[in-house]
Amino acid sequence: MGRVAASLDTTPTVRPAEPGDAADVATLLETLGYPCTPDEARERIATIHADRRHELLLALVDDAVCGLIALSLVYSLGRGADVARITALVVAPNCQRQGIGRRLLREIESRARRAGACRMEVTSNPRRVDAHAFYHGCGYADGSRHFIKLLGD
Fold first, then answer.
1. CATH number reported for the structural domain that contains residue 118 in this entry
2. Rg of the chain's alpha carbons, rounded to an integer?
3. Ramachandran quadrant class, 16 (left: phi over 0; alpha: psi -120 to 50; beta: rest)
4. Nearest to 122 by CA among 79, 148, 90, 87
5. pLDDT tens across 90-145, in order?
6. 132 within a domain of the structure (yes/no)
7. Would you say 72 and 54 are in contact if contact means Cβ atoms under 8 Å apart?
8. Count of structural domains within the chain
9. Which stretches make up the N-acetyltransferase domain (predicted)?
10. What is the C-alpha separation between 51 and 36, in angstroms, rounded?
11. pTM of the complete model
12. Given CB 3.0 to 4.6 Å as the disulfide criterion, which of 12, 65, 119, 134 pairs with 24?
């Protein structure tokens, strides 16, 4: 991941993640606060590849991975249609504020529309104030309150 220049002069390309991207995916997930080994990332990439209702896209500049976004389509009984959920979005710290997150968001929104989703949803930790400003700046509004319960052994 240290391969990306500090300043980007080109528009990032976006492509689906492949098993060979596992080390970069693991690094980006760690940046987001979700520790992950390359082997675990490889398994997660394989899981996403095996389910057409999930996507994992990478942003690249000069063939170096600099961001990722993951999407899950979930049927909403109340809406009678699929809802697209962003389950991860992260840009490498040295590449932030250069349009990469917006590029990933636009691409995943386009794919969600083509898949027939009726809306996009994203959950963001309350302490990620910069992320909230980013989503608001991209046209997202505050929505329902999100509740969680960890299911342990």
1. 3.40.630.30
2. 15
3. beta
4. 87
5. 999 999 999 999 999 999 999 999 999 999 999 888 888 888 888 889 899 998 88
6. no
7. yes
8. 1
9. 12-153
10. 21
11. 0.88
12. 65
Percent of the chain topping pLDDT 70: 93
Instruction: Go through 20-52 and write b for each residue having 16 or more CB atoms within 10 A of its CB, e for each that does not.
Output: ebbebbbbbbeebeeebeeeebbebbeebeeee
The CA-CA-CA angle for residues 118, 121, 122, to 5°, reads 160
The C-alpha atoms of residue 33 and residue 30 are separated, in whole angstroms, by 5
Which of the residue ranges 1-5, 51-55, 68-72, 139-143 would you say has the lowest mean pLDDT? Answer: 1-5
User: Nearest CA to 69 among 50, 51, 84?
Assistant: 84
Q: Which two tokens stand for residue 100?
A: 């990469």
Supply angle C-alpha 37, 42, 44, rounded to 5: 95
Structural domain of residue 66, as residue ranges? 13-123
Residue 42 within any structural domain of the chain: yes
